[in-house]
Amino acid sequence: MSNPLVDMQKPDVVFCIGTNMTECHPVAATGIKKAVARGSKLIVADPRRIKLAEMADLYLPLRVGSDSALLLAMAHVIAREGLMDDEFIRSRTVEFDDFFEHITQFTPEWAEKITNVPAKDIETAAIWYGEADKGAIYYTLGITEHICGVENVQCLCNLALMTGNVGREGTGINPMRGQNNIQGAGDSGALPNNYPGFQPVTDAANQEKFEELYGTTVDLEKGITKVTALDLCGDQIRAMLIDGENTLLSDPNREHCEHALRSLDHLVVIDIFLTETAQLADVVLPATAWAETDGVQTNTERRVQRMRAAVTPQGQAKPDWWAICQIAKRLGFNGFDFESPRDIFNELCSVSPIYAGLDWERIDTGEYQWPVPHGDHPGTPRLHEGEFINGRGIFSIVNYRDPAETISDEFPVWLTTGRRLASYHTRTQTGRAQGIDYLLSEEVLEVHPSDAADWGLTDGDWCKMSSRRGSVKIRVKNTNRSPRGTVFASFSFSDVPVNILTGSGYDPITHTAELKVCPVHIEPL
Q1: For residue 93, what is the enclosing H or E element?
Q2: In whole angstroms, what is the distance from residue 133 CA to residue 164 CA?
Q3: For residues 413 and 422, what is the distance between their CA atoms, to the nearest angstrom?
Q4: d(CA 376, CA 202)
């Protein structure tokens, strides 16, 4: 996230795409509400008429999986209307000439045929964003959970680079994180291609640095993603440790996932509850919950925060770091003699340039947004001010491509999935709270009333929804939030395992599953 959350209130134009922010990030979304109340123009692009769309000055109801077509056409209009920031492009970017020539073909009329968004609305969105002194982009998984997720993000970057809407207050390209410490996990090296601090494993200097730290040989090859790991279960991978994730419910193509986990010789799960995934495990290690845990977390705006235990751990629960260190030491690995979170965090700061100016004592008395390159540095609320850390911004050449699967006579309906306000992720925690369960006690399929009538369904009926991978039984909810031809459900409920249906493709770079697009067939029960 390039800008701090406080900047949400400061743009002239806010462009939200692929983010149901008021449900998935309800606290942060108050910044958008304040911006609208202050007079900011709000553009919302989403297949569903979510609450954010009801607040918008301009709503773009694009077809699922057509984001890049919309964004390419917006770039076309910005260039055609001469709304680029020429000085920014000249001084801070490269490869604009090739990009400028490339986007001449992507007219709003071309995009209308793909996205179903009227060409005039695409033009309006582009002009508003291009004319804004401060234009900010916010997005989440509705952009990334596609086979072209990386390309979608590159299209957003192109818009910001064209207009100079980066590196300044109230601008930026701002992905909203879905969990409180998912940013911190990446910072700490929980990625197959990076050491802590996003230092590439393919760099020979990093190899030498971490060999010295770990006291063992490391190689220059990238690790594998979870997608690859599940494919290799029962073959090259015989044992697995899953920490704090209910993989069986959250991952696509559930039957494949369950088969993979059952084919292992040994599965260990660390979690605070006996989740559906933990029930498959040979060993379950009970973890401490957030209020029982000392440590550090880094939030969506790169803010490094101390977390202090408030209560004593229950039963045999231990911190995740302690359990992992015990396993590592009993496997014979060196370098896991940590006695506290303080030791671990200080090691992270010693090897990660973006954390180099921090240590346990400093964050105990303040909060800093990385990068913090040295001990006197105050932190960096906004990235890319004045310059890009890697030199210049690069315009990306992107083309539109269809989702991995498209609708057909056999599967004529688009299914898109996501989260709901009252059922966080796989309900590992919210599903155990009676008050929250009262708000949403079952999963439903959101269907446009006209579609429901055509399919012989009324509100509250049960239907069978099928894809190429399986089927689920789910109750119908008539709502105008879903456009005709598109239905929506969350993956939160174990008794309605919607991810049995998904998993038709993955982004080739990130291996992120195309959870937002799945052709299905629906019939009454």
Answers
A1: strand 93-94
A2: 9
A3: 26
A4: 31
